[in-house]
Design goal:
- The protein is globular, with a radius of gyration of 19 Å.
- The longest helix has 29 residues.
- It is built from one helix and 13 strands, in the order αβββββββββββββ.
- The chain has one domain: Exo-inulinase, domain 1 (Jelly Rolls, Sandwich), CATH 2.60.120.
- The chain is mainly β and about 210 residues long.
């Protein structure tokens, strides 16, 4: 009886350790946000600005999902938050659609000091670089490790933490990037990209951002 009890205690400790590790891996993607942190309201493009500044033919909302779809001329478009951010934690879900998906999340604007976190196929490298930072005039200074994590046909959760010039990314609960950029821009809007010169579509939902 005592042996069984000791064995049960060991099993319980092991189970508790596994549950704690699992909770830590998911905690970053599930428990950091509340309704006041919601950036996309699931109904319309309130709090966002579309570029180029003309009639929006790229971005639409239906049933809580934000759709981005290329036009026939492959013009491309960005969707920008109207508010600017310094240090923040951002979470979103994305699902890649048809075509050659080349998208991403802009962090503090679009300039040589502001990296973008790639979603989909890099136009320059011709390979999937999801989770990796793209820096204008530098290319991809680091590569996120997303093998066996990225769901190419379903929804994915991405969490991005930005503190000063330090960037961390989690994909589906697993850390995939830890990167520091010298001379980084420290304030600006966040944005979603529909890359020009592509025929593609992508979906987003559950977009939150929390100032740190």
């Amino acid at each position: 009886m005592d042996i069984n009890l000791r064995q049960m205690s060991k099993n319980q400790l092991l189970l508790t350790s596994l549950l704690c590790a699992f909770a830590l891996s998911l905690g970053r993607s599930q428990e950091e946000f509340s309704e006041k942190d919601r950036l996309f309201n699931g109904r319309n493009l309130k709090n966002w600005t579309v570029t180029p500044d003309k009639e929006n033919i790229w971005w639409s909302v239906k049933d809580g999902i934000l759709y981005a779809k290329s036009d026939a001329e492959e013009t491309g478009s960005n969707l920008w938050s109207q508010e600017e951010y310094q240090d923040f934690l951002m979470r979103l879900e994305f699902k890649m659609g048809s075509g050659t998906v080349d998208s991403g999340v802009f962090l503090r604007g679009e300039n040589p000091e502001s990296p973008q976190i790639q979603i989909g196929i890099s136009g320059s490298l011709k390979v999937d670089m999801t989770g990796s930072p793209y820096v204008p005039k530098q290319g991809y200074p680091a590569k996120a490790e997303v093998e066996n994590l990225l769901n190419v046909k379903g929804w994915n959760t991405m969490l991005i933490k930005v503190v000063k010039n330090h960037y961390e990314v989690w994909l589906n609960g697993e850390g995939v990037l830890d990167y520091t950029l010298d001379n980084a821009s420290l304030q600006g809007p966040v944005g979603l990209q529909l890359h020009p010169g592509r025929t593609m579509d992508i979906m987003f939902k559950e977009i939150y951002i929390k100032k740190l």
